[in-house]
Amino acid sequence: MLSVLKAAYSGGAGKVLKQRRICTLSWRTVVVALALLPAAVGAPPTDSMEQRVQPCIACHGEQGIDLESGYVPRLHGKPAGYLYNQLVNFREGRRNNRAMVIMVSHLADDYLWEMAEYFATRDVPYPPPASPPANAQLATRGRILATEGDPARDIPACQTCHGERLTGVLPNTPGLLGLPSHYLAAQLGAWRAGTREAAAPDCMHAIAERLTGMDIQAVSLWIAAQPVPADTSPIAGPVAEPPMECGSVPLPGQ
Amino acid sequence: MSMRMSYLLTLVLAGALSSAAAQPAAAPEQVARGEYLARIGNCAGCHTAPGGADFAGGRAIDSLFGTFYAPNITADADTGIGRWSADDFWQAMHNGKRADGSAMYPACPYPNYTHVHREDIDAIYAYLRSLPPVQQQNRAHELSFPASARPLVSLWQWLFFKPGSFQDDPSQTPAWNRGAYLVQGLGHCSACHAERNAFGVSRGDGSAPGARIRNWYAPSLYSSAEAGLQAWPVEKGAALLRHGKAEEASAMGPMADVVFQSLQYLTEADAMAMATYLHALPDHDTEPAVRLLPVRQADLPAVMQRGQKIYEEHCQDCHGRDGEGSLAAPALAGNRAVVLADPTNLLNVIRDGGYPPSTGGNPRPYGMPPFGFLNDVELAALATYIRTSWGNAGTPVSSANVTRKD
Asked: Which domain does B269 fall in, by range?
């Protein structure tokens, strides 16, 4: 079933499907995404979280969906704290994707948390990694930034906070694997430009501001080419000695 | 500045400070009541920006006349209304006058708030003053002429605004009177549900159609074919107000915001009162808010066939083969929201999807995926199929009426 999905998403030889309108979907994508969902076809809807998150899955699929207009990232297996922060950030204007803002703008904290937990506990295989960049200089720079950082410019290594395997760290730091380089680069660019924000102190904004365009390209290409380890779960956290303070929204009820 | 001027200014400032500071601390019950009333008035809907500090202003409100930025109404002395006395606040809410005497733009719905009793305004004032002051400068409105000329707002008030004073109608029940008070006053339902003329004035007699707001259509409360509650049991109307969901009816779009931010906090008695009043409003046909281009009769069979195919592929698993609905999706057969003369809301929901609000009475709503990949011809066909099948007596929608506006 997954191979069907992959073939349909990638349109054969890595060709991106033509997107027809706003959110992101093509006919075939939706047909295939819906066909994958046991609850969606034939069987009557059930009183379940699976049913309640159908609007999410329509665009995100299980592994994320790559489209001409932009990449819709995977949700499955990311830390609940991270997902919850993103949902609240969309609702409160720190992130601005129109489709997401419409989805979450009048959903309460408890429900958003429940959705975040639903996806956090789902284990779905990752797509294979991209090829490493042909340019050796870029590849080296990417590896150094991800694994050692650039202390002279106060840039911490990605691994310090996102985990040695880059599969994320509980409770709030997402894994970086299984994402295409153009999505990673777009996020770093958005952090740098301030169009993607987090609760203060916004550490990723601070880091992205220290990166050059070349750095962003290099580290995005390097991460996208990393093989996915057998164990993709985020590691227990929090990070013992974080290089800087990162804000997060309070959990429901706090 | 001359000595004399600065002396005068000091006097004025000191006077303002002492008049505000000299007020006795509000009783906790008054503050709690003020909090409830501020919710029902949905002050935060405009005065709290998304992700911003409570009541510190900054949210943009689009209008025919340009963009208003709601001001800071926290108790901060310099940037908020910390220097306002209870009388100043009453003047604003009741007469549309700021503390400096200038006229307020009716973007703030004081034409509705003017019906609110003094003791309720005082309670809201006490509540706002009980909150931490937030220093945040107001952003200037971005308006086109003549709306940009503030002195003209006084003229507007002189022409179109009459301060109100809500009087109970002794021939009606207490519930009806309470409902009328909330609907006409703090609830400011007519601010969205009635079309405004070129001067931004709503006709009060109910003959107007609903109004466009944020690219949605706020249907008329004076027609049971639109958003009126005349034909529903009062309990169903109250449930929709408070839970954002009642049988086939869901609050979506801007109304979902209103339920989420405001109406879900209604006491059951107040929700029943509002529904009682709305249930008793006159029920008449409203003027159509939009003229749809006709679909040629000869084209209809092909349009319907196309619409049915899309429906079967994407909609019927949740909405049912005959539009009967399921636990995850409302019935479309017999659902007045899909057959409104103006198809805007139906098209918005198909294109963008979304969830009804999560509320105390419906904390985990099911949602609708976006189908924005449908092109205008497909959308029109699907909308036509839904509006004219299973006994629905809506009009067909042509693709020319489907063009996105935003």
From this structure: 203-280
Gyration radius of chain A's alpha carbons: 18
Q: How confident is the model at residue B204 (pLDDT cuts 50, 70, 90)?
A: low
Token code pair at residue A98: 């129109």
Residues A115 and A8 in one domain: yes
Q: How far apart are the first and last CA of chain B?
A: 49
Q: Are residues A111 and A201 in the same domain?
A: no
The answer to whether residue B360 neighbours chain A at the CB level (below 8 Å) is no
Provide the token pair at A106: 């009048």
Is the domain of B120 the same as that of B40?
Answer: yes
Is B338 contained in some domain? yes
Q: Do B327 and A45 touch (CB under 8 A)?
A: yes
Q: Name the token pair of B46.
A: 């405009």
In this predicted structure, the answer to whether residue A19 has a pLDDT above a threshold of 50 is no
Q: Which of B373, B375, B403 is the best residue to mutate to test the A interface, defined by the most A CB atoms within 10 Å of its own CB?
A: B373
Q: pLDDT tens digits for B294-303?
A: 899 999 999 9
The verdict on A56 and A152 lying in the same domain is: no
Q: Is B43 on the interface with A (CB under 8 A)?
A: no
Structure confidence at residue A32 (pLDDT): 44
pLDDT band of residue B12 (cuts 50, 70, 90) is very low
Write out pLDDT tens, residues B161-194: 999 889 999 999 999 999 999 999 999 999 999 8
A94 belongs to a structural domain: yes
Q: Do A23 and B373 make contact, defined as CB atoms within 8 angstroms?
A: yes
Domain range for residue A217? 136-224
Q: Which of residues 213-272 of B touch A (CB under 8 A)?
A: 244, 256-257, 259-261
C-beta of residue B167 within 8 angstroms of C-beta of residue B115 = no
Question: Is A23–B352 a contact, with Cβ atoms under 8 angstroms apart?
Answer: yes
CATH of the domain at A52: 1.10.760.10
Residue type, B315: C
How many Å apart are CA A36 and CA A34, to the nearest integer?
5
Chain A segment 16-55 residues within 8 A of B by beta carbon are 19-27, 29-31, 34, 40-42, 44-47, 51-52, 54-55
Quote the Cα angle for B216-B217-B220, to 5°.
155
- A112 torsion bin: left (phi>0), alpha (psi -120 to 50), beta (else): alpha
**Mean pLDDT score of chain B, rounded to an integer?**
91
Number of structural domains chain A divides into = 2
How far is residue B367 from each of residues A76, B66, B250, B254, measured CA to CA in Å? 19, 33, 11, 16
Domain boundary among B227, B248, B280: B280
